[in-house]
Amino acid sequence: MAVGIEALQSLEAPPWLGAEGLTRCRQALGGKLVRETWKYSPLPKVTDALIDANVHQEPPDLALPPGTALHRFDKLDAPPRFGIDLNRYPLAGIVAARAGACWLIEVKRTPSRPLRLAAPGGRINAPLLVQVAPECRVDIEQEAAETADTAGFGALVLVLSLAADSEAHWATAELAPMVDQWSLLQAHLHGNAALTLNHQGAVANFRRQDINVVLDGQGARLSSVGAALICDGGRLDQQLVIEHASGGTVSRIKQHNLAAGRSRCTFNGRIHIHAGAVGADADLSNRNLALDPSAEVNTKPELEIYNDDVRCAHGATVGQLDAEALFYLLSRGLDPQQAQRLLSLGFLRDGLAGPFAERAATAFAAHFKGD
Amino acid sequence: MSLLDIDGLHASVNGEPILKDLSLRVEAGEIHAIMGPNGSGKSTLANVLAGRPGYEVTAGQVSFDGIGLAGVEPEARAQAGLFLAFQYPVEIPGVSNMEFLKAAWDSHRAAQGSQPESAVGFMKRARALAKGLGLNPEFLKRGVNEGFSGGEKKRNEILQLLLLEPKLAVLDETDSGLDIDALQTVAAGVNRFRSADNGVLLITHYQRLLNHIVPDRVHVLTEGRIVASGDKHLAEKLEAEGYAWLSG
Ligand SMILES: Nc1ncnc2c1ncn2[C@@H]1O[C@H](COP(=O)(O)OP(=O)(O)OP(=O)(O)O)[C@@H](O)[C@H]1O
Ligand SMILES: [Mg+2]
What we know:
Largest sheet of chain A: 9 strands, mixed
Strand order of the largest sheet of chain A: 2-3-6-8-10-12-14-16-18
Order of helices and strands of chain B: EEEHEEHEEHHEHEHEHEEHH
CATH topology of chain B: Rossmann fold
Oligomer: heterodimer
CATH architecture of chain B: 3-Layer(aba) Sandwich
Largest interface: A-B, 24 and 30 residues
Bound molecules: adenosine-5'-triphosphate, magnesium ion
Strand content of chain B: 25-35%
Number of domains of chain B: 1
CATH superfamily of chain B: P-loop containing nucleotide triphosphate hydrolases
Number of helices of chain B: 9
Largest sheet of chain B: 6 strands, mixed
Mean pLDDT of chain B: 94
Number of strands of chain A: 19
Order of helices and strands of chain A: HHHEEHEEEEEEEEEEEEEEEEEHHH
Radius of gyration of chain A: 20 Å
Number of helices of chain A: 7
Shape of chain A: globular
């Protein structure tokens, strides 16, 4: 039952979002900022899908380790700010309104094991806020189930708030998902906080990933290493906005995407260095391989720098397999298909890190074996 | 039948004639050194032999082990026993050295109709060879040549040579950039490889390598052709007098 943006009228905002929040979302959906970042993906279709999708209101599927506490937002006397820029991410407001609930996990002490989060699957998951106390460290692991949903639309909104000197590591592996998905990670880092991201996936469907990291405090650091294999028919659209809002902040981003068959891959990495961010240091590298002439790759480096004292490197490449490397393998007796497979796999593996790296490497290898 | 028989070879790179009427014969059991100024066409010859795309034979013939190489793909040349140690070995991040070596070895076995060797047996052999070349076996886990120093890359080429046991090894400046110990290790590797059944084409700028690997013949390549040939004493004369006397 696809009914378009008008259907949003019937949504009711939960108190912590507020009616005016929802109004802002409606306005933003038609606005220029959102239109531009949705240039390569069908926003109306996704909005419809969100309206139609099943809702999962239960607590995030977690066996919480000691040192952490789970709260329902609307049960809190003074809930924290929802903390999402609804002008930029109006879909988060829709997800919040559809879900009704919103969950908060407080990390008060460093847990002895990772937080395990269910993958979005084919449903709308209630937004989740994770607040990490000063000097604590948390690992968040999210892996799609082997028996993934085959119908529906998945949505995930995760907000990370890292207090001073805290650390978080968020790793995801979605290696055989069957459903279309939209996800948003919004992270705020205070002084000397460190965030590590490892996203790895195989995309045979439509997947849109929005990531917004605000390096808010002096010396906050982001490191992100990811790889995606976009299979025939797949559409991946990654939109990153990294904000260096304070001095001495550091960001390191490496994303390797391989588009096979008739697939489409979009990467938009925007680095925004604010006026006060003296000595900010940003390095973004996005490499793309288009294995077939029918594969489409869009990558756009965007830099906004309001400060002279920065170091900023931003590289985006789109290409075929490296001819030198190919010849090196051939000269050792590998046949061209085998050499191509090994180089493709190597390219993807070069973008793997974190707890799921090995599993992802195995899944990617299986893909190239079946070719 | 010669192991390598190059007869009146002309070759172009990107349409530019580089090799001009080059003839050379290497018999099994022989080591030939090729010397010559920068840009004279030494690497071009090596690449033409290995079948690198973009290196076009415009006239003449090359036969290897009795088979004409015209139209033979690079991988088929390798499987037939032709090996090129690159002047600039390529870095391949994300592909471990060990899996690269195993894939190369398996392709050679498959070409001979043999089953792939067990991973365990192969790894044992690779590790032992690496150790013998002064390469920490940890290097086998790293990406192919990734972050290797110049000398480590060259040792890695020799490791491949010893693993694949080709009939003809073309070594393109494998001695360049090596310290004295590495030079001796690499030379020992080549001497270990050499036998009555195989041959070596040794491209080098330095006579000192030839103190360790004694060549049967030394050739001087200038402007795409061989202008002088002799025994090891030719290399000593070049070392002392340079190349000028040859064009005089
Ligand atoms: N891809 C190419 N495109 C155009 N010219 C090339 C290419 N490769 C080689 N050449 C030219 O061919 C000539 C011979 O080069 P080659 O690399 O064979 O020399 P070399 O004898 O190996 O030199 P060195 O001692 O410096 O290694 C040079 O003039 C070089 O510039
Ligand atoms: Mg050369």
